[in-house]
Design goal:
291 residues, lipid biosynthesis, cell inner membrane, 79% helix, mainly alpha, lipid a biosynthesis, membrane, lipid metabolism
């Protein structure tokens, strides 16, 4: 139960930092989506990466993953950088309330399929719970909206979901070879955050340094929150099946819907509430273990 509660909390933290990235300038209201361009988001991710790297550097000095885990760390760093680029694309061409649920909802299904091939198995009840979580998350993406997301937004969101599934499986396997989740997480964020920050600074260094204090504060907060959120997930993967952790983590989309409604003037409505209830039911089924 402690693991499940921790992952649910990580889902909340994930929704918070994604909302910060979706609106890096801190604007709210109906014009918020067009107010923040891709340049702002690259700057935001540079600050997030820099914050994560600085925060994890002291831990990395004293906690080093075991040698068998390093191929997974390096692979995950590459996948996380790809995920970052896809996420920026998502929030540039799509609406937060649509692309976020699609990206997060598609990932657990892919993780479950791969985990099954790796020998992890869920009960029928848990499989129904997984389907409910993913279906509810997909419904959240379209409920209460005038139409489906545009093709570029849909492709970017599905690509993001695939990258999430890829690094989730890699990290789940890697951390089990690392002899401790703390060192694995610290080195992952030190390398990934440092590379992202260095890349953006090399191209847009002046713009990053000239970013408003508000953007620095929000993005730095996002860096701390994202590191904590995924650190919890990596730890949970040493204690529970990958598919369970992946699905429970994505319940943060419920919080994303609430954040979108409260801060970004995105309509919640009865259909989105019903979709959130389906996700909650799926979580209950996922936690139902055979006697």
């Amino acid at each position: 139960m402690l693991t499940y509660l921790a992952v649910l909390f990580a889902g909340l933290l994930h929704a918070v930092w994604n909302a910060l990235v979706a609106r890096p300038g801190g604007r709210t209201g109906k014009d918020a989506e067009t107010a923040s361009g891709s340049d702002d988001r690259y700057i935001a991710f540079a600050i997030i990466g820099l914050t994560s790297a600085v925060a994890c550097a002291p831990l990395a000095l004293f906690h080093v993953p075991a040698l068998p885990a390093w191929p997974y760390v390096i692979t995950s760093v590459v996948l996380h950088i790809g995920y970052t680029l896809l996420l920026i694309r998502c929030y540039t061409v799509g609406d937060f309330g649509q692309v976020y649920p699609i990206a997060r909802g598609s990932a657990p299904l892919i993780v479950a399929a791969v985990a099954t091939l790796l020998g992890e198995h869920l009960s029928l009840t848990q499989l129904l719970g997984l389907a409910a979580v993913c279906g509810g998350l997909g419904a959240l993406a379209i409920a209460g909206r005038r139409g489906a997301p545009s093709r570029p937004a849909l492709l970017a969101a599905l690509g993001t979901g695939a990258s999430i599934a890829a690094y989730t499986v890699v990290d789940g396997l890697g951390v089990r070879r690392a002899e401790g989740s703390l060192g694995y997480t610290a080195w992952l964020f030190l390398l990934e955050g440092g590379l992202v920050a260095a890349g953006v600074l090399a191209v847009k260094g002046g713009a990053v340094m000239a970013a408003p204090r508000r953007m620095w504060a929000m993005s730095a907060t996002g860096g701390v929150v994202s590191t904590l959120a995924y650190g919890i997930v990596v730890w949970a993967q040493t204690r529970s099946p990958l598919a369970e952790v992946a699905a429970l983590r994505e319940t943060g989309v419920i919080w994303g819907a609430v954040i979108g409604a409260v801060f970004f003037a995105e309509r919640l409505g009865r259909r989105r509430i019903a979709a959130a209830a389906v996700v909650a039911l799926g979580v209950i089924l996922l936690n139902a273990h055979p006697a």
